[in-house]
Amino acid sequence: MTTIGIIGAGEVGSQIARAAIACGYNIVIANSRGPDTLVDLINELGPLARAETAAGAAMAGEVIVVAVPLKRINDIPVEELAGKIVLDTNNYMAWRDGAFDLVDTGQKTIHELRQEHLPKAKVVKAFTHIQAPRITTWGKPAGSPDRLALAASSDFPEAIEFVTRLYNEFGFDTVDNSPLNESWRSAPGQPAWKQERQSRAELKANLLCAQRPSLPARG
Fold first, then answer.
1. Are 152 and 166 in contact (CB under 8 A)?
2. Could you give the angle at the alpha carbon of 125 between the alpha carbons of 66 and 196, nearest 5°?
3. pTM over 0.90
4. How confident is the model at residue 219 (pLDDT cuts 50, 70, 90)?
5. Which of 4, 73, 99, 116 has the fewest CB atoms nearer than 10 Å to its CB?
6. Of 69, 53, 48, 72, whose CA–CA distance to 6 is shortest?
7. How many CA within 13 A on the CB side of residue 219?
């Protein structure tokens, strides 16, 4: 069974860990304070989980979840993630993370910048428009009439394929909103982000209704 490395043990990272373990995945999880601070979480998660450093989680995982905001100076392991699918769960919030002019003006998405920070990885935007506690409580079996959908965006088809499989195992349908330069459509403030409970058809419609920030006028 695939081992998922998770960098970031906050609400999103820990909920993805819980959902993944329920589906039989092995989990290697890291935070910024060191493995010793994750004893309680590992005890809760059970024998399929262990704590590591960020570099250790990146090396151990066949697929990696990055559940921390993008920083101007990259502190995510680069070489350890080379060739791996990286699920980026980050939502851009300038008040929290600092402003990125390229994002604010619509020239780049925050996930394109993550891809630039990790040039040898295969970045896919995932789990960004669902509140963390819902990841383990809102899933429904495939074919359920009230099954919800989540978006994914990537420049790599194999990354979308993996996320589609993971979403399905967690109980959600997938809407492919690729490539990464289209990932702004599910960003904070957009219809797909505001309306958390969405069927596949509703999510597709909300993605199409998104409005991108205008580029600055050139003199």
1. no
2. 105
3. yes
4. very low
5. 73
6. 53
7. 0
